[in-house]
Design brief:
The chain has four helices and eleven strands; from the N terminus they run H-E-E-E-E-H-E-E-E-E-E-H-E-E-H. A hairpin with a 2-residue loop joins strand 5 and strand 6. Helices cover about 25% and strands about 25% of the residues. It is of the alpha+beta class and about 200 residues long. It is globular and about 45 Å long. Helix 2 runs antiparallel to helix 4. The relative contact order is 0.17. The strands form three sheets. Strands 6-5-11-10-9-8-7 form a seven-stranded antiparallel beta sheet. Strands 1-4 form a two-stranded antiparallel sheet. A two-stranded antiparallel sheet has the order 2-3. The chain starts with a helix and ends with a helix. The N terminus is likely disordered.
């Protein structure tokens, strides 16, 4: 798979049968040591008033979290990290793991974005490892798209309260942060390629 190379070194191959958070994966995420990536992830928590944000990369049609952030002064004290509890986990995703082509008062999912205004209202998601670990009420995820139009990952925010009014303006804010994250990841790849 080319995803680890396109991910600018943030993913690395591990031996077959490696276990990340109780699941076998051929690729796992390294804890984000990139303070800019964590700061960009954190930006969405402020702009959308959410408790956590996650950056994931796509490898073999699965999303794997490579960075997580919380607003300063939140449940993590003054830290922006959430102690790596989700690094390597899959998000609900936009592809085969997502609730696709769903429109209701609670869910909007069209393969381009997934917005779940109150996760607790969706019994089918209760057993998803991400939902079990994080216990989100609001869940909003959009793709990370390169300047060439390639989807390399996703940007996701969650909140511990439902948000029944999450609409077009909030989605635009989320997409704006996702563009900045994707640009940063793409620039890291350009710098890495230039140095090689």
């Amino acid at each position: 798979s080319q995803a680890p190379d396109q991910a600018n070194g943030l993913l690395h191959k591990v031996s077959p049968g490696s276990v990340v958070n109780g699941h076998n994966h051929s690729t796992m995420a390294s804890p984000a040591s990139d303070p800019t990536l964590v700061a960009l992830a954190q930006l969405g928590t402020y702009r959308l008033g959410c408790t956590l944000a996650f950056v994931s990369l796509v490898d073999n049609s699965e999303t794997y979290i490579i960075a997580e952030a919380a607003p300063s002064g939140s449940r993590c004290g003054n830290k922006t990290s959430v102690d790596g509890i989700t690094i390597g986990m899959s998000t609900l995703g936009l592809g085969k793991n997502a609730i696709q082509d769903t429109r209701s008062s609670n869910i909007t999912s069209d393969g381009i974005s997934t917005i779940i205004r109150d996760v607790r209202m969706e019994a089918t998601l209760e057993s998803h490892p991400f939902v079990e670990r994080i216990r989100p009420r609001l869940y909003a995820e959009v793709p990370l798209t390169t300047s060439c139009g390639e989807v390399i990952g996703t940007y996701c925010v969650v909140n511990n309260k439902p948000c029944h009014h999450f609409g077009a303006s909030e989605l635009a804010e989320l997409q704006d942060v996702a563009k900045a994250v994707a640009s940063h990841l793409e620039n890291l790849g350009a710098v890495r390629h230039y140095r090689q």
